[in-house]
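Appendix B. One record, verbatim.
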Amino acid sequence: MFSLYLECRQEVKDLLIAELWDRGSGGITESDLPEGRSGLRAFFPDDADAASLAHEFASWSPQWQSVESRDWVAIARSQLAPQCVGSRFFLVPEWRDDPSPPGRFRIEINPGMAFGTGVHESTQLCMEALERELKPGMSLLDVGTGSGILAKAARLLGASQVIACDVDPVAIELARERLSFIGSADAVRSAGVDLVVANISPEAVIRLAPDIVRCLRTPGVMIVSGFEVAETPEIEAALRASGALVCSTPSKGDWSAIVASS
């Protein structure tokens, strides 16, 4: 068995973990590093295609190490514990049977899925904002749905229609969960939904800001995250330039979200 060690910024950590699981990793451990970075160590069996892995993850300057054979799946799973998010959600790994606390919605998570296990601060910010902003009967568009955790949260909160969009093939699996699914936000009709949530990269938020505003009815609410506190002014400017009114900018640690209206 060997391990592959990568260092990355926190905002891409979940996506990189999903890619490592998808490439056959037998387990992944992570550690927090200074300056908003994370260290990931992924374990692979000896017969894994090391040359292919080296090519695919070359941009992350991978470091290789031979390791003793252990149950790395169990070790990796032990690091992901159930957690409460906001006042209404209970996130639990799908292999655990911990009882849900009274009054909380249960959402099962899988770290091998696309981005969005609920562990990341940006996902928590979006879920907490959904608790405040989503009223039963509202329609919602989840831009860059990833694992679908925000779409699931919206459905549990009483959204009448949830549209999930993503260009990642992994996210297509969400269509099997009775969610309306499309490839990208530009396929949504103008003024088609009451609320848009987007937990994506800052570059994607800026690029999609006109479409996010276009999709909203008036009045409508948008919740965007996936960027650090220092990047918030740039995101605010992009939303305002597209016609949005910024209402609040909640933060958690180094991460920020913006709640705005149309």
